[in-house]
Specification:
Strand order of the largest sheet: 5-4-1-6-10-7-11
Number of strands: 11
Shape: globular
Number of helices: 9
Distance between the termini: 28 Å
Helix content: 25-40%
Structural class: alpha/beta
Length: 247
């Protein structure tokens, strides 16, 4: 069965309590959950290590499954709840709990991409249009191969432009990685058993562990993606976006 899991931690380093932050009078985790529910035929659950988040999800009729607080990543949290879901998962999408405006059509596209038996992991990217995003280390960049797979992910602007003094969005097509992943369920379980890799630890990006261990990551482009919320300052951007996109 197609399954969407939303990892939601309370103890975020940059923004404690982030899943419960309000955007337009509704919590962020509820907005993510309701967007995911629009994917026909998919079961949706929140994976959290915090009773406050679990209770809140239950209050609006959602499914929340408690996980250990020792799990290091959202991907580990997704894998940990597979056996607790109402239906057996065959394809799984990990939607970060800070994506209140995730487009359901994009999730449908990710599920569809896994109908290709050669694809085990798929994720999203979009063109970077602002210099601010390009130089922001919280915005993860991705370099794409001709076959549509990811070559590398980094918090630094990549590639380096040798003839320019600094990276410039006007000089090259830079791409932003969006932290939404689709997995085959068996692959999800396998990658969470891999040991942390050197590149992953250097960049603090878990997807580099998968690449280092030979798991290709297919990239799907999206041009219709609302802002994620990584810091308290991002709430202002989210509020502005909601006013301009009330639907």
């Amino acid at each position: 069965m197609n399954t969407i899991i939303i990892p939601a931690r309370y103890a975020s380093t940059r923004f404690p309590g982030k899943p419960l932050a309000l955007i337009g009078g509704k919590s962020m985790v509820q907005r993510v959950f309701e967007q995911c529910l629009k994917v026909a035929g998919a079961q949706v659950a929140v994976a959290t290590d915090d009773d406050r988040i679990a209770s809140h999800v239950a209050s609006f009729g959602g499914i929340a499954i408690l996980t250990s607080s020792d799990l290091p990543t959202g991907t580990d949290r997704c894998a940990a709840v597979l056996a607790s879901l109402p239906h057996i998962a065959s394809l799984v999408i990990n939607v970060q709990g800070d994506e209140p405006f995730i487009n359901p059509a994009v999730l449908v596209g990710l599920f569809a991409s896994l109908q290709n038996d050669s694809i085990e992991i798929a994720t999203l990217y979009q063109r970077i249009l602002s210099q601010e995003e390009l130089t922001d280390p919280n915005v993860v960049k991705v370099v794409k191969a001709e076959n549509g797979n990811a070559l590398y992910f980094s918090r630094s602007p990549l590639p380096y432009l040798q003839k320019e003094e600094a990276a410039d969005v006007r000089q090259y097509n830079y791409f932003r990685h969006l932290g939404v992943y689709a997995f085959r369920a068996d692959v999800l379980e396998k990658i969470t058993k891999l040991k942390p890799s050197s590149l992953e630890q250097a960049e603090r990006l878990e997807q580099l562990r998968w690449l280092e261990n030979g798991y290709p990551i297919s990239l799907l482009e999206t041009k219709n993606h609302g802002p994620a919320v990584d810091t308290p300052e991002d709430l202002l951007k989210a509020e502005r976006y909601l006013k301009n996109h009330p639907e």
